[in-house]
Amino acid sequence: MTLESTPVRTDWTRDEIAALFDLPFTELVFRAAEVHRANHPANQVQRSTLLSIKTGGCPEDCGYCSQSVHADSGLKATKLMDPRAVLQAAAQAKDHGSTRFCMGAAWRNPKDRDMPAIVEMVKGVRAMGMETCMTLGMLTDGQAKTLADAGLDYYNHNIDTSPERYGEVITTRSFEERLETLEHVREAGINVCCGGIVGMGETRGDRVGFIHALATLPVHPGSVPVNALVPVKGTVLGDMLADTPLAKIDDIEFVRTVAVARITMPGSMVRLSAGRESMSDATQALCFLAGANSIFTGDKLLTAGNAGDDKDAALFARLGITPMAAECKVELEAAE
């Protein structure tokens, strides 16, 4: 499918991004919709499935995460799943219409002894004709090359928030370490999936900084997941924000964030990720209009709830949205 694409810039300034956020809402969404249609098929949304292949016990202290050993969420740690069970889950996801299968492990970084099983998972899912994505924490250069040799399509490693706010959310690894893993992934020839979380009590300035950090990477991420915080009791942010509902990002501001991501990263897949299960159909429709063109399907995202296949199918039918086939996807690399 040939589309007239928008020129890709990696030299966005914070002032330019702040000016986009400040546009009248309808003007911003209109501009984002124009950029979206110039770079992606209209009214098509990619469906992906995310599976936790190793849950809990993570030594990182991410303030939003129920899988951290620092959280008192009651979540029990598990061992790495058997590859056969992972492939069975992938087959079920494909049957339900997913074209990308994402696998997440609650690690600071994978051990080399775990890589053969990870490679088996990647090869098995690819053999089904699905795109593959992994999120395993930080990677060494050698591990990234191993995943590339296995045929991994995407590696997810979120920056979470703005560089300035990052230290208030996570202290066990630095923002620079996040960027280092992204560099290893790019150098290995794997597509980058990188986004973050809004609604963590941050300011609009932080959201500007978050988008700026993504839009000025050497190559824009192929996928940009935009998560709305799901406050989990027992986590630092879950407990902190439980009694301050005004800290939750409002729907209009969330749509603004999606729209600015679309304008600044025109070739990327912008994915509605965590938090979608609590969004109204109208809010999701505005997100799709503003350029979101990917969602996670199924009843669960790692350990958090999700909207579910039946609800998504009903929403797609109401909006006239067609599930995106893998071959219809317009990748950033093809646009550059």
Give the key terms.
336 residues; alpha/beta; two-stranded antiparallel sheet; 13 helices
Could you outline the blueprint of secondary structure elements for this entry?
Blueprint: H1 14-21, H2 25-39, E1 44-54, H3 83-95, E2 100-105, H4 115-127, E3 131-135, H5 141-150, E4 154-156, H6 163-169, H7 175-187, E5 191-193, E6 196-198, H8 204-215, E7 223-228, H9 236-242, H10 251-264, E8 269-272, H11 281-289, E9 294-297, E10 300-301, E11 304-305, H12 309-319, E12 322-323, H13 332-335
Parallel strand pairs: 1-2, 1-9, 1-12, 2-3, 3-4, 4-5, 6-7, 7-8, 8-9
Antiparallel strand pairs: 10-11
Helix pairs in contact: 1-8, 2-10, 3-4, 4-5, 5-7, 8-10, 10-11
- The helix content, as a percent range, equals 40-55%
Strand content: 15-25%
The residue-averaged pLDDT reads 87
How would you describe the shape?
A: globular
What structural class results from the helix and strand content?
alpha/beta
Termini Cα gap: 16 Å
Which sheet architecture does the biggest sheet show? Answer: 10 strands, parallel
The strand count comes to: 12
* CA gyration radius, whole angstroms: 18 Å
Point out poorly predicted stretches.
327-336
How are helices and strands ordered from N to C?
HHEHEHEHEHHEEHEHHEHEEEHEH
Number of helices: 13
